[in-house]
Amino acid sequence: MHRPPAVRARGITKSFGEVIALGGVDLDVASGQVHGLVGPNGAGKTTLLGLLLGLAVADGGSLEILGTPVGRTLAVPDGVAGFVDGPGLYPSLTARQNLAALASLRRYDTGPTASVDDALEQVGLTDVADDRVRGFSLGMRQRLGLAAALLTTPRLLILDEPANGLDPAGKRHVHRVISGLAANGTAVVLSSHRMDDLAALCSEVTILATGRVVFSGPLGKLAAESGELDYRLVTSDPAAAHRLASETPGLRVVTGGEPAQTGLVVRGPEPALDELVVRLVGAGVALRELGPVMTPLEAAFLALTATDVGPEAETEARTEARTAAGAAQIDEENSR
User: Fold this and answer.
1) What is the distance of C-alpha 15 from the center of its chain?
2) Domain assignments of the chain as residue spans, ordered by start
3) Could you tell me how far CA 158 lies from the centroid of its own chain?
4) Are 31 and 48 in contact, with CB atoms under 8 Å apart?
5) What is the CATH number assigned to the segment(s) 7-222?
6) Distance, CA of 286 to chain centre
7) Are strands 34-38 and 187-191 parallel, antiparallel or unpaired?
8) Which of 18, 77, 150, 322 could form an SS bridge with 68, CB 3.0 to 4.6 Å?
9) What is the dotted CATH code of the domain comprising 225-335?
């Protein structure tokens, strides 16, 4: 049986005074899909998420949610849940009391006690269910916000930075919950600055810049949009690798410092990288590590949103991305 898309937006506009937050945005999200929403600060992500949750109304365009046209009122169909700018919680209540109060206010038919316990178990908060929320870390509050959304058994789940503040173990837990919901038919719209989270969860992504869509489609299509990628190269002979990389047409060495300590970072298209590998093998240099410094999503984000910055700003952004990727890898290793 054909199911309507969970979200169908056409030409959505929204302004705040003279500031254009959304300037003609189209968006399609299928049922059972995790759709990423990406963009720099001020791109319009929060405004768009607010529209999907019924927290604001569009100035123009058409919006259908779960097959129902959304008019100029602060309302969305049943089955929509989530949060923007962090979940709203009562700090003086426990995690269980927060969810029980929410379930009671919304009069869920499933019965508050069973639903609350199940939601807490799904997000891994059973052990702290009777602790007051004021003592929760940011990551624990994020997980409790996700539990609150799960009370509705949502068909469309809107999440703004759900992995914010999570340690690697907590992040994996949340990833499993989101993936499980999508596998059971729930559509998820996920906004995050963590490109690794989006790459791990999303089948499609929409990139916003200054209130407009600059890319929307499957992650696989981003390779064509990402331009040249940076690759980290570790070999048995750093000096020889540096020389061979410098001599390979289409490649540029972008590493600072001593390659023996930092490894070698080269930038270029995949065919040039393949040629370098052939040259390394031919010279008897052992290849110990080779991989992209940033994901294609990160590279595409920079390429598609940095239209008004110069080479220095782009280089700085790439450096920050490499630093963030290294920190994420360290966190992952420490959690094992």
Assistant:
1) 25
2) 7-222, 225-335
3) 12
4) no
5) 3.40.50.300
6) 36
7) parallel
8) 77
9) 3.30.70.250
